[in-house]
Amino acid sequence: MTKIHRKSMKKGFDFTLKVAGASGLGKSTLVNSLFLTDLYRDGKLLGAEERIMQTVEITKHAVDIEEKGVRLRLTIVDTPGFGDAVNNTEWYRGRWGQFSNMFQSDSGHRFLFPRLRPLDVEFMKDLHQWVNIVPILAKADTLTPPEVDCKKRKIREEIERFGIKIYQIPDCDLDEDEDFKLKDQALKESIPFAVIGSNTIVEARGRRVRGRLYPWGIVEGYLLAPQWALRLCEAEDNDLKDVTRETHYENYRAQCIQSMTR
Ligand code: GDP
Ligand code: MG
Q: Is the predicted ipTM greater than 0.95, yes or no?
């Protein structure tokens, strides 16, 4: 164990994930889907009106996870929409310092983006020097599967055309079996990840699930599949340049991300 690694193990690790994008895309719902935070307040179940509140400031949700004496502090940061009003982008930029401080002090950080607009392109080009960007296709239930594929392809093309550096999932080991390699390939081709957020619990096929209840049926919430999340975690290690790979460290991080996807 290197000296720096020993120190990190003692101190624990910080993992910060922030969401950004236009207002109304479903960012807060997605964050709340991860934390189950917004269903109740003071023990009372909230009504739809109370739950749908526009995010007006940067909000943090933090959770401490401890595994074999190693602490992981996971912080998810929700942000208000940008680019919706005049000077809104400037407002965002004004908080740039706050963001970059956090970026630099974190041992790992991700940025999730639902959908892509010219403003997003501009913002992402600013951002990609600081953070790992993970593009997300929000409200996937509002598109048919062929539409999801088409939209994903377009976003990938735009990311390429505008020279935006998004987070690259590292190649898997050559000695992995064919099945794993195929899944890995599928994972890479599935960027931007499609998600369905929900802040209600509904009954579907005898199970209580996070889902969206419509007059015509239920759409189950959908986040990242565990194997995807695992590959994203692995990559996190690339950022921790001085920290050696340590199995149990990787495991607890993987577990934390996995529990977010349940
Ligand atoms: P934000 O402004 O990006 O934080 O968006 P919100 O999370 O406040 O969501 C805006 C609206 O979109 C709310 O009415 C949500 O119920 C709805 N919404 C959020 N996620 C989804 C989703 O995955 N699918 C659908 N159909 N609607 C969603
Ligand atoms: Mg919001």
A: yes
